[in-house]
Amino acid sequence: MFNVFRMKYAIKTERDIYKGKLFNLRQALISYKGKSFQRETVVHPGAIALLTLPAKDKIILVRQFRYSARRELWEIPAGTIDKGETPLQCAKRELAEETGYKAKYFRKLLDFFPCPGYSSEVIHLYEARGLSETYAEPDADENLSVKVFSRDEIHKLLKRGQIKDGKSIIGLMLWLKK
How many whole angstroms separate alpha carbon 92 and alpha carbon 94? Predict the structure, then answer.
């Protein structure tokens, strides 16, 4: 057994030092026990990620170029929550935009912070079932490939280290445990 202490921090100042299309960068001066320190945070509106299940033991992944990673990656469908949009509304929109499917059933699985050391982003992970085709309309900067994978194929991709995206690894590991 261990003791958990509730730490009390005081935010002395906060200011946005960068405002971008997808996120802002905020700088804060924080004090704790008489000491002050500075922190920078990527302020992000949040995102969704989807385990898109077209059939028993099948899952859909999308492949897209990620500038920050300097490569194409296989990922579970995902996207940033727009202003005024709920996570579920975003999940429905992103499913259609990225895969060309709509789902009859959505189930929220969990929320998580992918990088809490420097980002406020929360990813809401959903499962989408009961798929039917609809019109796919990716964002202008997205060039996506969509593919259905079996459990065995996903297991092999993960084992070989061919899936590098954290949200996808979390989602796929949950799916494989079922």
Answer: 6
- pLDDT surpassing 80 at residue 45: yes
Residue whose entry in the numeric block shows the structure tokens 């859909």? 60
Class (C level, CATH) for 47-177 = alpha beta
* Type of residue numbered 74: W
What length does the chain have? Answer: 178
- End-to-end CA, the chain: 31
Domain spans in the chain, listed from the N-terminal domain onward = 10-43, 47-177
CB crowding 48-62: b at 16 or more within 10 Å, else e:
bbbbbbbeeeebbbb
Are 109 and 173 contacting, i.e. CB atoms less than 8 angstroms apart?
no
pLDDT in tens, 58-85: 999 999 999 999 999 999 999 999 999 9
CA–CA separation, 85 and 81 (whole Å)? 6
